[in-house]
Amino acid sequence: MKRIRFWQCLVSSIFLTVLLTSCGDTMPGGQGAVEPASTSIGSASSTPTSQPQETCAAFLASAPCTTYTSVSGTASDKDLPWVASGSVKASLSSVNGQLMLGVRTECAPLSGLATITGNTLTAKDIVTGASGCTNGNSGEQHLWVTDFLKRPIQMTFSQGTLIWKSGADSLSFQID
């Protein structure tokens, strides 16, 4: 059972990495489309199994199902200028009924299983994809985002902005 779950997470992580780093990041149906687009991905197992089905999932009922790009952030109530440049992208998908969080930083993609209870997002089993930090601060920024994702995140969506808060830290996103 653990082996199957490992492969499901690995295949989902690879798919999310490809999805988040592809040239066309807009979901089918245009920007802000709510209707999920279904995609099949192959199994990494040598045994024939049914292929996982992935669909876009919304962070909140009021938020469009799409990829979000960072526009601002704070750490202990201090501005994080690097976040405003769109260096963090986030999306949520459902893979065979399980929520998968995908986050891309300038250094590497992150993904993991997610649950949403009310307006609280909780990520677990976070994995980092291939890392390629391009500047001296990218590694620190990636670690900050990874640590942020390890805590429960309170979410709100208002006037086109998705806001994540965890303690004194926050990230704000707009539709990509």
Task: Walk me through what this model shows.
This protein has 176 residues and is an alpha+beta fold. It is built from 3 helices and 11 strands; from the N terminus they run αββββαββββαβββ. The longest helix has 20 residues, at 2-21. It is globular and about 45 Å long. The model is unreliable at 1-7 and 15-45 (pLDDT under 50).
The SS-based structural class is alpha+beta
Mean pLDDT: 78
Cα shape: globular
Number of strands: 11
End-to-end gap: 37 Å
Radius of gyration: 16 Å
Number of helices: 3
Note the main sheet.
Answer: 8 strands, antiparallel, barrel
**Major beta sheet, strand line-up:** 3-5-6-7-8-9-10-11
Helix fraction by DSSP (H/I, runs of at least 4): 10-25%
Low-confidence stretches: 1-7, 15-45
Strand content is: 35-45%
- In N-to-C order, the SSE pattern is HEEEEHEEEEHEEE
In short:
This protein has 176 residues and is an alpha+beta fold.
Which key terms come to mind for this protein?
176 residues, 20% helix, disordered N terminus, alpha+beta
Question: How are the elements arranged and paired?
Answer:
Blueprint: H1 2-21, E1 39-40, E2 53-56, E3 68-75, E4 78-79, H2 81-84, E5 89-95, E6 98-104, E7 109-117, E8 120-128, H3 138-149, E9 153-158, E10 161-166, E11 169-175
Antiparallel strand pairs: 1-2, 2-5, 3-4, 3-5, 3-11, 5-6, 6-7, 7-8, 8-9, 9-10, 10-11
